[in-house]
């Protein structure tokens, strides 16, 4: 299967690069590792990822037919019972497509560079954060959990990849640079405004640790994830208020994600899908807290991903909101395996196998069996 072959090959090259002592060889191996998933994205048929035909291919055709950038921005096309205008899309994405086309690029070239703007920031984000975990594992989390999704949600994933890279600035307390990164991400998808929420969640989760004592049992670690769960649940019960605020700030198109024909209700399938990782996090919490200061942040993101997934009961596209939280699994899954486990080789290997088995199951179930995002089976252009 071409997906799995590409994922494994890329991770092998990354693993070799981490062991290489030659800077030239290291850079070459990293380049090849990043290149492989981008080539796979560029060689796919326009039926792989529903949004390719919804806006990427029309934008490509509009750029090809235009005589100037202004004429390109004024073009429109008819799809799904309405007209869509080039000017309605984020300027960063439309400019990217326009420049590639005007330099002679094909649709495949456009798709290639779109994924270069996804894969590269994720890799360099993992590298800049320097968490002492294998980068290949973080990238494998992306490949198995998110790569197929990114073949569909291209604009949002460019923005999310940029935000992920930007987290490294928060780790070094360079807040201004992080906010600049958020603004740049918004040029590709306005939902990247979630980056400001991520900032406050990061700051909150990194506050002085609190402890709770139940009877004679002391619960170690920050209570941030517990409090975030409570606050998040309150937000879920106040969706109408949130929708009004979104419309007030000119973000009415996102209000539909949290409003539907009915009320929100519990989605057990979304809980079960995440349960193996939740259980592992609870088991490993104390040891992770001792080594990785981001553990409360990981827990908070996992909690918010779980809560946001319940919005699917209102709107099937609401999973896009959850994606802004779940992308940090690229850090947390590595921490689950390595944090506090470095001296315990057997524990580390067992945990690694557990996480790999979970991700493999997730990929097979979510993408191959249910066909979510219309990316399986892979078809060449």
From TrEMBL:
This is EpsG family protein. It comes from Fusicatenibacter saccharivorans. Signal peptide: none annotated. The chain crosses the membrane at residues 24-43, 83-101, 107-126, 156-172, 179-202, 228-252, 264-285, 297-319, 349-369. Coiled coil: none annotated. Keywords: Membrane, Transmembrane, Transmembrane helix.
């Amino acid at each position: 299967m071409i997906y799995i072959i590409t994922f494994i090959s890329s991770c092998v090259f990354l693993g070799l690069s981490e062991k290489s002592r030659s800077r030239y060889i290291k850079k070459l191996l990293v380049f090849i590792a990043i290149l492989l998933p981008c080539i796979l994205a560029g060689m796919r048929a326009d039926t792989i990822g529903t949004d390719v035909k919804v806006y990427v291919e029309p934008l490509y055709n509009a750029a090809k037919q235009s005589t100037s950038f202004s004429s390109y921005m004024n073009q429109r096309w008819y799809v799904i019972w309405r007209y869509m205008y080039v000017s309605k899309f984020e300027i960063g994405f439309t400019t990217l497509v326009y420049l590639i086309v005007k330099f002679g690029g094909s649709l495949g070239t456009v798709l290639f560079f779109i994924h270069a703007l996804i894969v590269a920031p994720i890799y360099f984000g993992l590298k800049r954060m320097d968490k002492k975990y294998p980068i290949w594992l973080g990238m494998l989390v992306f490949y198995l959990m998110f790569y197929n999704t990114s073949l569909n949600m291209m604009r949002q994933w460019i923005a999310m990849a940029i935000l992920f890279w930007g987290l490294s600035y928060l780790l070094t307390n360079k807040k201004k640079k992080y906010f600049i990164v958020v603004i740049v991400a918004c040029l590709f998808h306005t939902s990247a405004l979630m980056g400001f929420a991520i900032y406050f969640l990061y700051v909150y989760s990194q506050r002085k640790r609190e402890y709770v004592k139940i009877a004679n049992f002391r619960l170690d670690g920050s209570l941030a994830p517990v409090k975030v769960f409570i606050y998040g649940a309150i937000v879920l019960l106040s969706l109408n208020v949130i929708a009004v605020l979104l419309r007030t700030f000119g973000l009415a198109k996102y209000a539909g994600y949290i409003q539907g024909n009915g009320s929100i209700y519990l989605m057990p399938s979304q809980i079960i899908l995440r349960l193996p990782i939740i259980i592992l996090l609870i088991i490993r919490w104390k040891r992770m807290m001792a080594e990785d200061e981001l553990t409360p942040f990981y827990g908070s993101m996992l909690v918010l991903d779980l809560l946001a997934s319940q919005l699917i009961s209102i709107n099937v596209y609401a999973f896009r909101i959850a994606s802004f939280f779940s992308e940090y699994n690229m850090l947390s899954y590595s921490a689950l395996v390595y944090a506090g486990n470095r001296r315990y080789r057997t524990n580390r290997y067992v945990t690694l196998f557990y996480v790999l088995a979970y991700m493999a199951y997730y990929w097979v179930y979510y993408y191959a069996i249910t066909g979510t995002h219309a990316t399986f089976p892979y078809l060449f252009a």
